[in-house]
Amino acid sequence: MFSRLNCKLSAVCMALLCLTTLVFSWSGDASAQTPFIIGSWGLVWEGARDNYTGTLRVTTGRTEKVFDAKLNLLKSDGSKIAEDAKITVTGDEVRIECVNPSQKGWNPDRFYVVRNGDRMEGYSLDTAGQRGQKIVFNKR
């Protein structure tokens, strides 16, 4: 009797172990990895009216494809602009939509870039329709 009980217990334990391993492997692949976009990015931007350098700091957002960020820009004349941003990632395409600029009269920026490893490159188009020449983000 104890032998049968021991075998049944072993079988139940083995089944639970297999099930646990399976569940962790399914959930671990997607959620254990940090999305490439999260972290700090340096930028160089040839805008519509000026040249800029700066940083983009990306944090987790509401979903696995939408992230929150803070953009800090330094104009060629030394003045600074900060904007909040929402980032949407679709495959290698990244859309950065800024809001709440720190400078009055500044049109919120939008960037359309494509990721290639730790680099993103594309163009800007602000809410007034002014298109920048080129923007490059490099992961720090």
What does this protein look like?
This protein is of the alpha+beta class and about 140 residues long. It folds into 2 domains: about 35 residues; about 100 residues, Beta Barrel (Lipocalin). Helix content is about 20%, strand content about 50%. The protein has 1 helix and 8 strands. An 8-stranded antiparallel β-barrel has the order 1-2-3-4-5-6-7-8. The protein is elongated, with a radius of gyration of 23 Å.
* Helix run count: 1
Helix content: 10-25%
- Summed up, the domain count is 2
Mean pLDDT: 85
Largest sheet: 8 strands, antiparallel, barrel
User: What is the gyration radius calculated from CA atoms?
Assistant: 23 Å
- Summing up helix and strand content along with how strands pair, one would put the structural category as alpha+beta
- Distance between termini? 64 Å
Secondary-structure arrangement, i.e. CATH architecture of the largest domain: Beta Barrel
Kindly provide the name of the CATH class of the largest domain.
Answer: Mainly Beta
Poorly predicted regions are: 16-31
Question: How does the SSE layout of this entry go?
Answer:
Elements (H helix, E strand, L loop, with lengths): L1 H30 L7 E8 L4 E9 L6 E10 L4 E11 L2 E7 L10 E7 L2 E7 L5 E9 L1
Antiparallel strand pairs: 1-2, 1-8, 2-3, 3-4, 4-5, 5-6, 6-7, 7-8
Name the descriptors:
49% strand, Lipocalin, 21% helix, alpha+beta, 140 residues, 2 domains
Concise account of the structure shown:
The protein has 140 residues and is an alpha+beta fold. The chain is built from 1 helix and 8 strands; from the N terminus they run H-E-E-E-E-E-E-E-E. It has 2 domains: 1-33; 39-139, Lipocalin.
